[in-house]
TrEMBL record:
Role played: Hydrolysis of 6-phosphogluconolactone to 6-phosphogluconate.
Reaction(s) this enzyme catalyzes, per UniProt: 6-phospho-D-glucono-1,5-lactone + H2O = 6-phospho-D-gluconate + H(+)
Domain Glucosamine/galactosamine-6-phosphate isomerase: residue ranges: 11-235
Gene from which the chain derives: pgl
Keyword Kinase: no
EC number of this enzyme: 3.1.1.31
CDD domains documented for this protein: 6PGL
InterPro entries given in the database record: 6-phosphogluconolactonase_DevB, 6PGL, Glc/Gal-6P_isomerase, NagB/RpiA_transferase-like
Record-linked PANTHER family: 6-PHOSPHOGLUCONOLACTONASE
Signal peptide: none
Pathways involved: Carbohydrate degradation; pentose phosphate pathway; D-ribulose 5-phosphate from D-glucose 6-phosphate (oxidative stage): step 2/3
Lineage: Bacteria, Bacillati, Actinomycetota, Actinomycetes, Micrococcales
The protein's name in its UniProt record: 6-phosphogluconolactonase
Length: 256
């Protein structure tokens, strides 16, 4: 098995969401054959919700024992509980609310109405990650980390030419003056993401083509943060045709 990056191209956003959802359901079923619990990191952004809706709409999802799956988030916007900008709200509406999960299986970042400061919230999430530390890490070794990719190449809330993508001494950072609103956010750091068994990046649209092309051509993680992301076993870019415009043909595996 190689942990080289793979790029799988689908014709459009809907096909992409359906294909990733099917692969996710199959992978979770396989993992649950071999282990008690599966830890998954969800993403915000356009494809994060589309993929989860496709899971919800797939009859195959009923075969999964979701009570053995824990959900975390890669980043969160510092707004109140239930705010429409929160990534966890989007994930709950798209899928999680329909699964009837035990509360303990959901690990949302604290919200701005929690009574904590942004820095305290980062520490609280680090402590929550620590409760599930495994294999000597102060955080779970995630089975699957989903990431969206912004048009500027940001992943989670790790933005170009900001210090966040370089942080390796903490699992969680507080982000201020984010170039994308809202300005205050919380984010997992690169070492937590890259310790995952699998990182699945899901992105669609022509506005993502340039950042993706740069990342795969060897740009620095400072310039294009997604360039610094690599899972331990697998790193797969699930993309649509529009996002593939600047990916070298030699890297592409077409799934249609
Ligand atoms: O703000 C965020 O943006 C990225 C990418 O979002 P997209 O809508 O351009 O796909 C997302 O991955 C991240 O979780 C989110 O907080």
């Amino acid at each position: 098995m190689t942990n080289e990056r793979r790029v799988l191209v689908h014709p459009d956003k809907d096909t992409l969401a359906g294909a990733v959802a099917a692969r996710f359901i199959t992978k979770v079923l396989d993992l649950l054959d071999d282990q008690d619990v599966v830890h998954v990191v969800l993403t915000g952004g356009s494809m994060g919700a589309a993929m989860l809706e496709a899971v919800r709409d797939s009859p195959a999802h009923k075969s999964v024992d979701w009570a053995r799956v824990h959900f975390w988030w890669g980043d969160e916007r510092w707004v109140p509980t239930g705010h429409e900008d929160r990534n966890d709200r989007q994930s709950r509406e798209a899928l999680l609310d329909s699964l009837g999960l035990p509360d303990g299986n959901l690990h949302p970042f604290p919200a701005s109405d929690s009574g904590m400061s942004l820095d305290e919230a980062a520490e609280a999430y680090a402590a929550e990650l620590g409760r599930f530390g495994a294999a000597g890490y102060p955080h779970p070794v995630f089975d699957i980390v989903f990431l969206g990719v912004g048009p500027d190449g940001h992943v989670a809330s790790l933005f170009p030419h900001r210090s966040g993508i370089q942080v390796v001494d903490r699992p969680v950072i507080a982000v201020r003056e984010s170039p994308k609103p809202p300005p205050e956010r919380l984010s997992l750091t690169r070492p937590v993401i890259n310790a995952a068994q699998r990182v699945w990046l899901v992105l669609a649209g022509a506005d993502k083509a340039s950042a993706l092309g740069l990342a795969l051509a060897g740009a620095s993680r400072d310039e294009v943060p997604v360039a610094g992301i690599k899972g331990r076993r697998r790193t797969v870019f699930f993309i649509d045709q529009d996002a593939a415009a600047e990916v070298p043909d030699s890297l592409i595996a077409r799934e249609y």
